[in-house]
Structure formats: structure tokens, C-alpha cells
Task: inverse folding
């Protein structure tokens, strides 16, 4: 029976190895949220890195066995591969370039070589499982070369590629020394998908100008195959978030949190800690709002939940320090014994707690500088099944193209954001 093989850099579980042995917990992040249900069906399988380095062969064997029972297969990476492929090329070259932070991008040829090798490692893992008729569904910017690598081994296979982050304009993409190889890698798929129409147009323009292939209605004609390129804006499981926000557990938590927050109005933001998410800009807008609207002091708080992410990468460490300082400054300047302006958490919460936050917040405050889609704003809306609440949303999130009834702001405009907070409240 044909199956779907999902392939992404990370598996949807975080594997840890500590004194108690090997433990597993679901990972937080957009991809895990979006595809969580598909790989569990029938014989489908999800191939990816389990998120840690294991040197002991017996541990690797155990992890592989445990994960196989849950329809997952691990690709193990060495410490050098983690550094050069994951932290290096993926997160210090592709991520900043694709999010228009070109000044953060490093151009290191060695890292690109390791990126290629690791993509080939994923390819070998696919070959272990693929049988004729299967659909191979590859995800995201860490695996741009993989569609072509698989095509070279299995010319007749059915391959989809979906990119979860923006695809930048040609003028930005062309900065990458490896631009053509990366494009050709993606064109190894039969279907290439993006969240938005703009991302798709940017990709097609780069294919045309760098690889010389034109397109008609999103179809690229290669000499021996056709590739369809389209936009597929990713949604969420609406019912899951609506039900969770209405669950006994979430309501109980919400009542407890409300008591300790003395019924102040609440702005809520939830992100991975990442410079693309516009967190310092958001904090400065909240500070300006308090300064310009002192009547709201003691009446409104901002809850900011930051999920630790890529903490070995220098820019992320610097960002964490900047955020710590800003939160300290705002709480130090405006706080009262009985009121904290910013409730700041640097960790993950279980879904039940997130649902309680989503449901008790009056305003969802989502202000990325760039975001492929952004699922948090959709989860906020789904959790407000009572149709109350206001969403402030950056025009630079893919989701802004769908959620046009939100208060749409430009995240570089501090004034506009401060005004939107007032309007939202
Ligand atoms: C990438 C793209 C695109 C957050 N904190 C906790 C937690 N989360 C969950 C949220 C949400 C997910 O993580 C974050 O998804 P986003 O879409 O907002 O952002 P990225 O992680 O950057 O995702 C993005 C996405 O891929 C999908 O294509 O939308 O543009 O950058 O689901 O709820 N989950 C739990 N505890 C937390 O503390 N359980």
C-alpha cells in the first residue's frame, strides 16, 4: 500500500538524554503543529533528526526502535554536522537571507559542503523506506538539495517540496553564492509549494533569471519534466484549538491565572525566540504605549512567551540579551508592587496552558519582521470561539494575507503599533 514519507530536518519529538536515560517529548514549532496528525496514519513515516547528538551505538539503536514504533525514523548527525549544517548553513546563511536579514548571513563554502553531505544522508534514509508508488514530502529550507538528490536515485518517484519560510525576492536570493544549485535542488520535486502567492512569484522569478527556465501559470518546463509551483497557505486544526480553549483544564487554569493577575487586561505574544519575530520592536511599542497612555498603567499587562530556539547561534544569544535588558528596563521603570507590566517566560508550556492564555488574552499581539505564515495568530483566533478579542498582526506575516480583519501594522512603525494597542484595548 503506497505511503507518505514526510521528511524534515527535525522530527516532531524532542529526544533528551540525561541521568534518567532517554526521554521523549513533543517539540514546539510550526512544522510539528501543522503535520502532527498525518504521519501517524497507516504506514506513513516521518524521517528527521531527533534533535540531539548520541555517540553510543546502543543508545542510537534504542532511539531508532522507540521512534519506529511511533512511525518515525531518526537521522543521526555528528557534532560537526550539527554545527556546520544546522547552526551554520541552515541558520546562519539561509534563514537570515530568506527573512531579509542579509547583513546577518555568513557565506562559508565549507558549511555548504556539509549541507550537501547531510542532505545526502537524509536521501539515504529515504531510500531505505521508499517503495514504488510512495509520495515523498520534503519540508523546508534545511533540505533544499534533497528533492534533486532523491530524483537522481528514484527518477519516477512522486516528490513534493514545501517551504515554510518566505522565499525572498530575486535581488536578495541572488546574493547566495550557491543560488543556482539550491534552485535546481528544489526543482527536483514535482510540486513546489509556498505559503503565499508572493513567495511563489519570487521563486519563479529566480528560476527564470538564474536557471533560465520560464513558466506558464506556475508550471516550469524543464527539458525532461514539468514542475508545478503553487501557494498553499497552511492552516491549523481549528477544532483542536477551539476545544482545548474550552476544556475544563484550560478554564480552571484561566481562572487561577486571572486571580493572580487581578483582572488586568492582557496582551499576548508567543514566539520562538528569533530575530525574524520582531520581539524588541514589540517591546518598544508596548513601552511607548505606556508612556503615551498613563491611564492604562496597572490596567494592562503584556504576556510574552519565548520558546528557546537555536541558542548556540550567536545572533540568537545577542537577541536574548537585548530582550532581557528591554524587559528589565520596562518592568523597572513602570512596575508597581501590585502590577507587573510584562510577564516574561523563556520556556515552553503544555497546550492546556497555552489555550488558557489564548482564551484569557484580550489582544493577540503578533508582530514579526518576516514570517512565512505564523500559526500563533491563527491559534489565537481559533481559541476565541466566542468571537471576542482583537488580533494585532504584522503585514509581513504570510497570515496577514488571510486574516485581513486584524489590526494590520508595520512592525517597524513603533507609533502605529502603540496606537494599535490602544485601539485594540
Ligand atoms: C515556521 C515558520 C510557519 C509555541 N510555544 C509553545 C508552542 N508553540 C507552538 C505554537 C505554534 C508553533 O509553536 C509556532 O509556529 P509559528 O508558525 O508561529 O512559527 P515557527 O516555529 O517559526 O514556524 C512559520 C510555520 O513554520 C509553519 O509553516 O507558520 O512562518 O517560521 O503552533 O503554538 N507549543 C507548545 N508549547 C509552547 O510553549 N506546546
Result:
Amino acid at each position: 500500500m503506497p505511503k507518505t514519507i514526510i521528511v524534515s530536518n527535525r522530527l516532531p519529538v524532542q529526544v533528551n538524554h540525561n541521568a534518567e536515560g532517554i526521554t521523549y517529548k513533543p517539540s514546539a514549532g510550526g512544522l510539528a503543529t501543522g503535520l502532527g496528525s498525518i504521519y501517524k496514519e497507516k504506514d506513513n513515516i516521518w524521517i528527521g533528526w531527533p534533535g540531539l547528538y548520541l555517540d553510543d551505538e546502543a543508545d542510537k539503536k534504542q532511539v531508532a526502535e522507540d521512534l519506529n514504533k511511533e512511525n518515525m525514523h531518526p537521522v543521526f548527525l555528528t557534532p560537526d554536522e550539527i554545527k556546520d549544517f544546522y547552526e551554520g548553513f541552515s541558520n546562519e546563511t539561509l534563514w537570515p537571507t530568506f527573512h531579509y536579514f542579509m547583513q546577518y548571513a555568513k557565506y562559508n563554502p565549507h558549511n555548504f559542503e556539509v549541507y550537501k553531505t547531510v542532505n545526502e544522508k537524509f536521501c539515504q534514509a529515504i531510500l531505505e523506506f521508499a517503495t514504488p508508488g510512495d509520495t515523498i514530502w520534503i519540508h523546508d529550507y534545511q533540505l533544499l538539495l534533497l528533492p534533486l538528490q532523491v530524483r537522481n536515485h528514484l527518477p519516477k518517484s512522486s516528490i513534493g517540496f514545501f517551504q515554510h519560510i518566505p522565499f525572498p525576492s530575486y535581488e536578495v536570493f541572488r546574493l547566495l553564492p550557491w543560488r543556482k544549485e539550491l534552485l535546481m535542488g528544489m526543482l527536483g520535486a514535482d510540486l513546489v509549494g509556498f505559503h503565499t502567492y508572493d513567495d511563489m512569484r519570487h521563486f519563479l522569478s529566480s528560476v527564470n533569471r538564474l536557471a533560465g527556465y520560464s513558466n506558464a501559470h506556475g508550471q516550469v518546463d524543464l527539458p525532461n519534466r514539468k514542475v508545478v509551483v503553487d501557494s498553499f497557505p497552511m492552516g491549523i486544526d481549528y477544532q483542536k484549538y477551539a476545544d482545548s480553549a474550552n476544556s475544563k483544564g484550560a478554564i480552571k487554569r484561566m481562572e487561577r491565572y486571572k486571580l493572580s493577575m487581578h483582572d488586568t487586561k492582557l496582551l499576548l505574544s508567543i514566539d520562538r525566540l528569533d530575530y525574524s519575530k520582531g520581539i524588541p520592536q514589540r517591546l518598544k511599542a508596548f513601552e511607548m504605549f505606556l508612556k503615551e497612555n498613563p491611564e492604562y498603567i496597572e490596567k494592562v499587562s503584556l504576556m510574552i512567551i519565548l520558546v528557546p530556539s537555536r541558542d548556540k547561534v550567536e545572533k540568537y544569544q545577542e537577541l536574548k540579551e537585548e530582550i532581557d535588558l528591554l524587559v528589565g528596563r520596562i518592568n523597572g521603570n513602570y512596575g508597581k508592587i501590585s502590577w507587573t507590566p510584562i510577564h516574561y517566560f523563556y520556556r515552553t508550556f503544555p497546550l492546556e496552558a497555552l489555550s488558557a492564555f489564548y482564551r484569557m488574552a484580550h489582544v493577540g499581539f503578533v508582530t514579526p519582521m518576516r514570517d512565512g505564515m505564523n500559526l500563533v495568530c491563527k491559534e489565537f483566533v481559533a481559541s476565541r470561539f466566542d468571537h471576542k478579542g482583537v488580533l494585532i498582526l504584522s503585514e509581513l506575516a504570510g497570515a496577514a494575507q488571510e486574516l485581513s480583519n486584524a489590526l494590520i501594522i508595520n512592525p517597524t512603525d513603533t507609533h502605529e503599533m502603540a496606537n494599535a494597542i490602544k485601539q485594540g484595548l
Summary: The mean pLDDT is 95. The two ends are 54 Å apart (CA to CA). Residues 270 and 305 are 5 Å apart (CA to CA). The chain is about 40% helix and 20% strand.
